[in-house]
Amino acid sequence: MNEVYITGIGLTKVSEHWNKSLKHLTYESVQNCLKDCNYKKPDLIVVSNALGGFIQYQESLSNLIAENLSLNKIPNLRIETGEASGASALMVGYMAIASGMFKNVLIIGVEKISDALPHQFISYVSSFLDYEYFVYNGITPASIFAILYKLYLKRYNAKQENIAQFASHDHKMAINVEHAQYRFNLPVERILSSPILVDPIRLFESYPVSDGAASIMLSSKDQVENKDYSVKLEMISASTDVNVLYREDMLLFASLRDSFSQIRKHAKIELKDIDFLEIYDPYTIASPIILESLGLLNKGEGYKLLLEGQHEKDGDLPLNTHGGLKARGHPIGATTLYQVCESVLQLRDKAYNQVPNAYIGLVHSMNNIGDQSFLILLKRL
Amino acid sequence: MTAPSYWRERKYRYRLIAKYCRNCDKKYYPPRLVCLRCGNDKLEEVELPRKGTLITYTWVTQPPNEFAAYAPYAIGLIKLDDGTLIFAQLTDVDYEELREGLRVEAVFRKMFEEDEKGLIYYGIKFRPAYFESNPPP
Hints:
heterodimer, A: alpha/beta, Peroxisomal Thiolase, Chain A, domain 1, 2 domains, two-stranded antiparallel ribbon, 13 helices, 19% strand, B: mainly beta, three-stranded antiparallel β-sheet, 2 helices
């Protein structure tokens, strides 16, 4: 199997881009990416986009984007696996290079949510669940997270102020990050006094409406020109789980546990080897469950390291150093690619909140309530 | 949604019919075609009990488009009397009256409707099982 490297990244600011379409956003991020990789010519384009069919009524998106970029005569495809679309697109790109079939694969993540009305957006994002039985009964992803939140608070006798702290952490990180959507401090008191979104989730405990595009150039080893700038994509592991109703324990993402055991087994990496971690945290309650499912903390103690300050950039395990889904923003199909781009910045020593001596980074991505989990392992050359 | 896509699920939705794996003694609702434990594809159809206990609940203020006219509404995680877990809307009750451990029963209700010429969609919601503790005279 051939080794896979990230030779270029390109981002747009995450925001509500009222004046930019899917085409504009992708164009901007791809231009940045091509410049970053010294204008390599891709031989495959993989587009990650979750809701373009619903929101912009646009299917065949990858071909439209390729045309708009004047990247014709190159095969292109679009990947959709709900919120984990970005991770899946990256996995397809990884396979394309690892197999030896392609030399340079351009991965583009793009999403434009601000074109949808709020009620429509909730419908669309709920379609990641089993529509016929969940959405039909008025169940949304947010309401399932709210139920998990209540179960968590009760079972572990936890306090909401401790869990809401994760949003505060994300916002503190985003202040320095130029491409982040919300760059301001958000003390826990303000989070807990914000309106209730889905009891007990407060408005500021949820991800915002975001538009954005992020692009990554994946390359085979012979294409790596600048070793200081290139990062090795060591491994992508993926696993799935049944929907929450069928699970033995609702407060554990078994798919993530499986995913990490694959990393441990094949890449011989333990949690102590990881210099920073990016997690997929649409609601604050996801964070402790993710950290517990990874095996980092015992059940019910998912916020312990946070309270000890160990998730700061100079702590034991820096977490979401560019603001996570809540402060950097969550342009769904592009989110994982943002996470990976930010991790590449860390490994290049160019991050906005630079972690000292960052050599190995781990990125987590998931769909729904841990129904699908991905882990992406990155290494400095 | 089109009429056929509505009709073909109505049996499962109206009568709370789950798929049952005899090997694993496990029920699936939403119904599944294959047992997720043993791979058995000869699943039987069984009716779920129409009473259960409310494990926990929440209040949806940001509904999907279909339910825009009905928000806010309460939803609950309910453990039916055979142990099957389901999510459902809670009805005929004020949010303040809800509590964990509340006994609830299934009731046939309108879920949502389309425009004037569209379909009206029905399904099951749950309400407090009032007569369980207060039998009618």
